[in-house]
Design goal:
The protein is α+β, with helices and mostly antiparallel strands. The protein has three domains: 111 residues, no CATH class; 99 residues, SH3 type barrels, CATH 2.30.30.60; 85 residues, Alpha-Beta Plaits (2-Layer Sandwich). It has twelve helices and eight strands. The protein has a five-stranded antiparallel beta sheet with strand order 4-3-2-1-5. A hairpin with a 4-residue loop joins β3 and β4. α3 packs antiparallel against α5. The N and C termini lie far apart (114 Å).
Length: 341
């Protein structure tokens, strides 16, 4: 083995060793800073950038010393160009990780100091959309920069600029749906139409918003199914948002009972059930005769809860409890089918 080859292999080994050393030093420094500032979530999140940083350092050192290029004399230019592309991709990866850490740390700090759950959900949705938008923008710039390193793409870019008017029209028509979804996603995030964690009713199906992207929303239904809806739906069509301003809600139960039902005693039993329930928030309750028919009366029991999940559980418990009390104490109050005879 020639001395030239040995020296180049040594240079490659030193480059890898220096890369690992830089990663270790940066990681230890971030650990110390995080230990001194435990209230900040930024420094632990920044440690996730160690691997892309090592890639950037390693490839930059390889480009600066060109050890691999000398190992492949016949393909030196191709090797250097490949390293350049890898460096640009690594820089884009690093920038994306840093931006994600900054946004996540900012949200964690806001969540710690804010006492308004609705505003926290709104900021969470906005941060999620910003992360996706900045990630897409960084990826687009990175890919465009990599393509511009090819001589043929530079010529193609010049021709595109020369016919910019026609290309703009064609691209606008072709990407109309995509751009519409993109701007609809921004309207949802910053217009506070719907947030992650909101309870919504879409196409007569109730669920909780689980994920918001630039193209679609994922709604978790009560039976754990996921309903995927384009973001443009929420901008162009009406929908119900039960928790937009306040997660508290009012639940109600209808009972069809006999005309002989002791409504006053039923009201007292309803009140007792509410006091023994952990779902009732204590704000309001009522039990009234809502309607009558020739054979029954319609009793409506209303109750307030902290959120929609508590409302569903409380309605089921109240319905079951009232029917059981009537069965045990006033069985004649349950509706009966009368026949002539």
């Amino acid at each position: 083995m020639s001395w030239k080859l040995i020296s180049q292999l040594i240079a490659v080994g030193l480059t890898i060793g220096a890369t690992l050393l830089v990663g270790w030093i940066v990681d230890k420094a971030l650990q110390r800073i995080a230990a001194r500032k435990p209230e900040s979530a930024f420094w632990p999140l920044l440690r996730r950038c160690r691997i892309p940083l090592q890639f950037v350092v390693c490839i930059a050192l390889l480009l600066a010393n060109a050890p691999l290029s000398n190992l492949f004399d016949n393909h030196a230019d191709g090797v250097r160009h490949g390293l350049l592309l890898a460096l640009m991709a690594s820089i884009g990866w690093l920038v994306n990780r840093v931006l994600a850490a900054v946004l996540s740390a900012a949200f964690a700090r806001y969540q710690r100091v804010s006492d308004d759950p609705a505003r926290v959900q709104r900021v969470r949705t906005q941060v999620s959309m910003l992360r996706r938008a900045t990630g897409a923008l960084v990826a687009l710039i990175t890919v465009a920069s990599m393509l511009l390193t090819y001589q043929g793409m530079r010529t193609f870019g010049a021709s595109l600029l020369a016919s910019a008017g026609l290309i703009t029209v064609v691209a606008g028509i072709a990407a109309q749906s995509t751009l519409g979804n993109f701007f609809s996603g921004l309207v949802i995030a910053f217009g506070d139409l719907v947030r992650i964690g909101d309870t919504v009713v879409v196409e007569q199906q109730q669920g909780t918003v689980e994920e918001i992207t630039l193209a679609y929303l994922v709604i978790r239904l009560w039976d754990q199914r996921r309903l995927v809806v384009p973001v443009s739906y929420f901008v162009s069509r009406p929908f119900e948002n039960w928790t937009r301003a306040d997660p508290r809600t009012t639940g109600w139960v209808l009972l069809h009972l006999d005309h002989t039902t002791p409504v006053a005693e039923l009201r007292e039993e309803f009140h007792r059930l509410l006091f023994s329930s952990k779902e009732w928030d204590g704000r309001d309750w009522a039990l009234v005769v809502f309607d009558t028919t020739p054979s029954t009366i319609v009793v409506r029991a209303t109750m307030t809860t902290r959120n929609n999940d508590d409302a569903y559980a409380l309605k089921c418990a109240v319905r079951e409890g009232l029917l059981a009390w009537l069965r045990d104490h006033h069985p004649g109050a349950l509706p009966r089918v009368r026949t002539g005879g």
